[in-house]
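User: Let's play a game. I give you a shape written as tokens, and you guess the letters that built it. Ready? Here's round one.
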């Protein structure tokens, strides 16, 4: 069985598209405009779904190789609401490149921007390092961003900066705990089971709390991340910050 799976993997790799649009920032930007004009009516302006499926969730479509996605965009899917797209091949590839960018790791997206300027922003005026750590430096209680470029797409990182509560809060959720003795604790829940939960308070101190100690738990649906970066950062500053964060990975991009 292992041999069969390995052979299938090799075949898929051989057939994987080498089209230059994939991962090309200019092609992705052009594909975004085409997507908005031709695809957003069903899939939403940012690929979040609507009448058509959510393309920002990896789900069933992400194992599909680039050529298969090109065929579906170009020819549609008979018997479904997915129509054929009457566009030149190069424009279809640009759309495929944009859709790929919605879930591809940010480190593979070649995000434009000044990385050094983004680094200064992160550790300086943007205030990111007050709540987030990179390689052991920084603050609490936000998520560690040491490997963010390998774990999240560029689109996900951008959304988390500009609209941190847009998709709800499922990780590092703000919480207020009331204990049976009347004491309270506010912080970020980083792990939870039926028996215990781990919370990091505002000072960065971790707490392991047995559920038998708890009287009430209130989770917030609003992220603790500031929501004013849309106005606090200029377009250029955002681009630079994204360029810096997209390069944060514990492994080289070629791996």
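Assistant: Ready! My guess for every position:
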């Amino acid at each position: 069985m292992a041999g069969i799976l390995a052979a299938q993997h090799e075949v898929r790799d051989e057939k994987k598209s080498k089209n230059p649009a994939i991962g090309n920032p200019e092609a992705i930007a052009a594909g975004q405009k085409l997507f908005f004009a031709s695809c957003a009516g069903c899939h939403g302006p940012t690929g979040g779904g609507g009448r058509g499926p959510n393309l920002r969730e990896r789900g069933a479509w992400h194992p599909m190789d680039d050529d298969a996605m090109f065929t579906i965009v170009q020819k549609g899917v008979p018997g479904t609401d997915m129509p054929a797209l009457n566009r030149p091949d190069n424009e279809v590839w640009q759309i495929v490149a944009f859709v790929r960018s919605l879930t591809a790791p940010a480190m593979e997206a070649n995000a434009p921007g000044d990385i050094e300027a983004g680094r200064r922003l992160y550790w300086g005026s943007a205030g990111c390092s007050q709540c987030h750590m990179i390689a052991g430096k920084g603050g609490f209680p936000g998520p560690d961003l040491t490997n963010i470029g390998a774990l999240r797409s560029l689109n996900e990182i951008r959304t988390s900066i500009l609209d941190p509560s847009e998709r709800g809060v499922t990780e590092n959720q703000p919480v207020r705990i009331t204990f049976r003795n009347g004491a309270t604790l506010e912080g970020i829940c980083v792990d939870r089971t039926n028996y215990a939960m781990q919370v990091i308070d505002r000072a960065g101190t971790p707490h392991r709390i047995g559920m038998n100690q708890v009287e009430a738990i209130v989770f917030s649906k609003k992220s603790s991340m500031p929501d004013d970066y849309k106005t606090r950062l200029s377009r250029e500053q955002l681009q630079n910050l994204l360029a810096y964060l997209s390069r944060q990975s514990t492994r080289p991009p070629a791996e």
